[in-house]
């Protein structure tokens, strides 16, 4: 009986010791980060690579991703605290700054560096010319959003007045634009991938131009958060940026086919060859940023586009809403 009692005591001590080891280092503590992405698109391939390849987990982060369709909804979610980090156009941080926010939104890691939309025509154009858009019905994006501003900037560059030379439709929700075009609204539309390639496959439209190529380098889609979050979570923001940069390099070093296979779980209703085609398009026009650092020249181009659209009260210095420190540190880390 005494032997049995000692055996039970010994077993209890072993279990207690083992549990102590897990608590002291066997079980790595993770930090949860909630991301809200403005849309689901192959345009954000490095983000999905970071999730699927475990780059966030390697940094001790448990990332929860949700799609908050539209820049306005994404920013509302960030400001309300429903998400920790927003993946959205850099212009949204400028809008918050222009409103005199006490807790400004700070851009800390760039993901894409060109516009990600393509001009899709309902009819197959043998030899497309931008002048073809005159007197047409153009299904545009939300007023004040980066896709619409970059689109209008490109039209003006080609001598087309977006408000006077064509019928511009802007009253359709971002998430419903593709469906509206498919149902017969408009002769031209701006679409992200993979939707543009899907429409080509289905014969519903034809890609005739790239707004990414036309509008130049931009901090088009950026990870951003509130200044207060950065102040309290600097280590977390650094780890997050490290994972993103690792994913950016991975996409540049692997084939479109390999990237397509990796991100396929985020596009379950999309054929693999469509995903490959979309990745190729974005790689060929340099849409995926190779570094999370926001470049000053690209920032100036963003301000030019916003000014052209009449959405900028005054030019905003990058230092007001950009913190490149995390991105620069991530780039210095050898993969």
Q: Would you give an account of this structure?
A:
The protein is of the alpha/beta class. The chain has two domains: 31-114 and 218-332, Periplasmic binding protein-like II (D-Maltodextrin-Binding Protein, domain 2); 118-215, D-Maltodextrin-Binding Protein, domain 2 (3-Layer(aba) Sandwich), CATH 3.40.190. Helix content is 47%, strand content 15%. It contains 16 helices and ten strands. It has helices spanning 2-26, 45-52, 55-58, 71-80, 91-98, 146-157, 177-182, 195-202, 211-215, 227-232, 234-253, 256-263, 272-284, 296-308, 318-321, 325-332; strands at residues 31-37, 61-67, 85-88, 105-112, 118-121, 137-139, 167-169, 188-191, 206-210, 221-226. A five-stranded mixed beta sheet has the order 2-1-3-10-4, with helices on both faces. Strand 6 (137-139), helix 6 (146-157) and strand 7 (167-169) form a beta-alpha-beta unit. The longest helix is centred in the N-terminal third of the chain and has 25 residues, at 2-26. It is globular, with a radius of gyration of 23 Å. The N and C termini lie far apart (59 Å). The relative contact order is 0.18.
Summarize the structure.
By secondary structure, this protein is an alpha/beta fold. Helix content is 47%, strand content 15%. The chain contains 16 helices and 10 strands.
Oligomer: single chain
CATH homologous superfamily annotation of the largest domain: Periplasmic binding protein-like II
SS elements, strand count: 10
CATH architecture of the largest domain: 3-Layer(aba) Sandwich
List the helices and strands and how they pair.
Layout: H1 2-26, E1 31-37, H2 45-52, H3 55-58, E2 61-67, H4 71-80, E3 85-88, H5 91-98, E4 105-112, E5 118-121, E6 137-139, H6 146-157, E7 167-169, H7 177-182, E8 188-191, H8 195-202, E9 206-210, H9 211-215, E10 221-226, H10 227-232, H11 234-253, H12 256-263, H13 272-284, H14 296-308, H15 318-321, H16 325-332
Helix pairs in contact: 2-11, 2-12, 8-13, 11-16, 12-13
């Amino acid at each position: 009986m005494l032997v049995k009692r000692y055996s039970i005591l010994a077993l209890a001590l072993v279990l207690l010791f083992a549990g102590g080891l897990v608590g002291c280092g066997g079980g790595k503590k993770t930090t949860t980060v909630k991301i809200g992405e403005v849309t689901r698109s192959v345009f954000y391939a490095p983000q999905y690579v970071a999730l699927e390849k475990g780059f966030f987990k390697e940094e001790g982060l448990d990332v929860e991703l949700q799609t908050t369709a539209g820049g306005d909804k994404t920013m509302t979610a960030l400001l309300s605290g429903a998400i920790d980090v927003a993946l959205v156009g850099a212009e949204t941080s400028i809008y918050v700054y222009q409103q005199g926010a006490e807790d400004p939104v700070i851009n800390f890691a760039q993901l894409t560096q060109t516009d990600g939309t393509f001009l899709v025509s309902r009819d197959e154009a043998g030899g497309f010319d931008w002048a073809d858009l005159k007197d047409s019905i153009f299904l545009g994006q939300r007023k004040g959003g980066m896709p619409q501003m970059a689109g209008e900037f490109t039209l003006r560059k080609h001598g087309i007045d977006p408000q006077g030379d064509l019928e511009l439709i802007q009253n359709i929700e971002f998430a419903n634009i593709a469906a509206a075009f498919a149902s017969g609204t408009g002769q031209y539309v701006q679409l992200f991938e993979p939707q543009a390639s899907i429409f080509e496959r289905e014969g519903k439209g034809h890609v005739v131009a790239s707004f990414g190529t036309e509008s130049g380098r931009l901090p088009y889609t950026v990870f951003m958060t509130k200044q207060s979050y950065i102040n309290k979570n600097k280590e977390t923001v650094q780890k997050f940026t490290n994972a993103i940069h690792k994913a950016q390099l991975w996409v540049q070093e692997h084939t479109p086919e390999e990237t397509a296979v990796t991100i396929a779980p985020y596009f379950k209703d999309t054929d693999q060859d469509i995903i490959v085609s979309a990745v190729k398009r974005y790689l060929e026009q340099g849409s995926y940023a190779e570094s999370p650092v926001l470049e000053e020249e690209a920032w100036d181009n963003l301000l030019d586009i916003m000014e052209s659209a009449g959405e900028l009260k005054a030019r905003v210095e990058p230092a007001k809403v950009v913190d490149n420190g995390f991105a620069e540190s991530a780039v210095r880390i050898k993969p």
